[in-house]
Amino acid sequence: MERLPERLMTPARLIFQAAVRAKVPAMLVGGAAVSLNGSRRFTKDLDVNVASFHFLTQRSRFGPPALPKEFSVRKVSATRLNVTYMHPLEAIRCDMSTNYATVLPSLMPYTRQLGHIRYAACNLLLADKIRTYGDRWNNGIKLASDLEDIVFLVGLMMDRGERMPHVLRQLILTSDVLDSFRTALPESERLLFKSFLADVGIDMDMP
């Protein structure tokens, strides 16, 4: 069974335990989820999609806070929170987003679970990484790691004989997302990735 490094495992477990108690759908994405799918690439933080922030930002009068005192929560925008866990040796950042809130229930069949931690399965993670890559066209460091993850995930799907589910193509891999991905790719690699993604049922030329 794949595991996260202990420095990430503890805050991830506590965040997902809080979400489970509050019955709020949540899933781990990003580099940590790639690690749980078998990659050995180093990742230093957590990325979590949730249906609502209320379980973190609203405290009961009588109950304990959702997260232990080692956590601090800072609002970044209406759809993003920065949650920081003070590990004994370093601060572990968790970026939380509600951007997928309306479709999160439809994405749950494409997740896996490790204890309380629910994380994106290979196909969902690939779709999300393609979307993220197109959004990060001006962040060279992040683009490089996203592309590394995309190559790993496509290879994993090919090894398993899997293709991108129709639901994920409809919900995430829209024509706008694929166009942004194609534009963000180095021009010399566009034909290569067009062929590569076609092997798992993703058509970069979709109308």
Under CATH, the topology of the largest domain can be stated as Beta Polymerase, domain 2
Distance between the termini: 40 Å
Strand content: 15-25%
Largest sheet: 5 strands, mixed
**Shape designation:** globular
Based on DSSP secondary structure assignment, what is the total number of beta strands?
A: 7
CATH top level class name of the largest domain: Alpha Beta
Which spans of ≥5 residues are poorly predicted at pLDDT below 50? Answer: none
SS-derived structural category: alpha+beta
Protein name: Nucleotidyl transferase AbiEii/AbiGii toxin family protein
Notes on the structure:
- The chain is built from 9 helices and 7 strands; from the N terminus they run H-E-H-E-H-E-E-E-H-E-E-H-H-H-H-H.
- With 207 residues, the protein is α+β, with helices and mostly antiparallel strands.
- It folds into 2 domains: 1-120, Beta Polymerase, domain 2, CATH 3.30.460; 122-201.
- A 5-stranded mixed beta sheet has the order 1-2-5-4-3. A two-stranded antiparallel ribbon has the order 6-7.
- The chain is globular.
Chain-wise SSE layout:
Blueprint: H1 6-21, E1 26-29, H2 30-36, E2 46-50, H3 54-57, E3 71-77, E4 80-86, E5 91-97, H4 104-107, E6 111-114, E7 117-120, H5 122-135, H6 140-160, H7 166-171, H8 175-184, H9 190-198
Helix pairs in contact: 5-6, 5-8
